[in-house]
Amino acid sequence: MGLSAQSREQVxxxxxxxxxxxxxxxxxxxxxxxxxxxxxxxxxxHQWSFLHLSS
Length: 55
Prior knowledge:
This protein is of the alpha+beta class. It contains 1 helix and 5 strands; from the N terminus they run βαββββ. The chain is elongated and about 35 Å long.
């Protein structure tokens, strides 16, 4: 599942907060042109991604 964020910094903050709460970060963020994405796995094993698309 992908969820949008307001900025690249917010993407990192949200994934870091998920990891502190017991989730598993799936590594550093990746940038592809204007798209920045970073993911984590929750306690039930579901994978989530936060995305920021700069204009």
